[in-house]
């Protein structure tokens, strides 16, 4: 049995990306895109979409097969931006 990505989730993510690109183009600081998933196909789809749109991102391994894809590439994951690492 094949698995597929929920189209409602895909639409939500696409609208977040469009909003992100719109705010970035107008000179405002966009709200970061931050999605967490244990479903590899969802993570792959999101990474491909962000790459095609030219948006910088990073993939964080959370353990147990769970990954977080975020556009917040400035904050250190180790110290959470406190500078204590």
What's the structural blueprint in terms of helices and strands?
Blueprint: H1 7-25, E1 34-37, H2 40-53, E2 58-63, E3 66-70
Antiparallel strand pairs: 1-3, 2-3
Q: What is shown here, in short?
A:
The protein is α+β, with helices and mostly antiparallel strands and 85 residues long. It is built from 2 helices and 3 strands; from the N terminus they run αβαββ.
Describe this structure in words.
With 85 residues, the protein is α+β, with helices and mostly antiparallel strands. The protein has a domain at 34-72. Helices cover 39% and strands 18% of the residues. The protein has two helices and three strands. The protein has helices at 7-25, 40-53, and strands at 34-37, 58-63, 66-70. A three-stranded antiparallel beta sheet has the order 1-3-2, covered by helices on one side. The longest helix has 19 residues, at 7-25. The chain is flat and about 45 Å long. The mean pLDDT is 90.
